UniProtKB/TrEMBL annotation:
Keywords: Signal. InterPro entries: DUF2147. This is DUF2147 domain-containing protein. It comes from the Bacteria. Residues 26-155 form the DUF2147 domain. It holds the Pfam family DUF2147. Residues 1-20 form the signal peptide. The keyword Signal applies.
Length: 165
């Protein structure tokens, strides 16, 4: 009986670990090279793939349309003309596959400011007191063959996001 209970507890713990959210999931502020907050994002997993939606942009009308985007993009997860979708609540980060805990790649990101699509990699970087003074999300956009740039986004809360509006 004790063995049965021990086995059940071990299985329950294992199932809990499997269903736990990845460290990249949650709310993040995108920050440009000058340290200016450009948007707040919600990063989430759906169907084994990683997605990200802008949920707030400082000093921008919530109903603003992504007019700089083109009509369609290869493998975009939402049907329709992207140039007629709102900047907010559209999955501009899409179809990333999990490489390891806190590591995602193989998908894309679209910059709604200019409509350009890039290959995308996301990596969670834990606070280490040296290079990273807080937990960050490394967001890397690439044009190919490793050529691209990274931004380091900071975790945020829904209350901080509300203050951006």
């Amino acid at each position: 009986m004790k063995r049965l209970i021990a086995c059940c507890l071990i299985m329950a713990a294992a199932l809990g670990a499997v269903s736990a959210a990845d460290k990249v999931e949650g709310f993040w502020k995108s920050v440009d090279e000058e340290g200016k907050v450009t948007a707040a994002w919600r990063i989430y997993e759906k169907g084994g793939k990683l997605f990200g939606e802008i949920i707030s942009v400082p000093n921008q009308d919530p109903k603003e349309i992504a007019t700089a985007c083109t009509g369609t993009y290869k493998n975009f997860p939402v049907p329709g003309d992207v140039s007629k979708m709102t900047v907010r609540n559209t999955p501009f980060i899409f179809n990333l596959a999990k490489k390891g805990e806190g590591q995602w790649e193989g998908g894309n990101i679209i910059d709604p400011k200019d409509g350009k699509m890039y290959k995308c990699k996301i990596a969670f970087r834990a606070k280490d007191g040296k290079k990273f003074t807080t937990d960050v999300l490394e967001m890397r956009g690439e044009i190919g063959m490793g050529i691209g740039r990274s931004q380091f986004w900071v975790r945020t809360t829904e209350d901080e996001i509300a203050a951006l509006n």
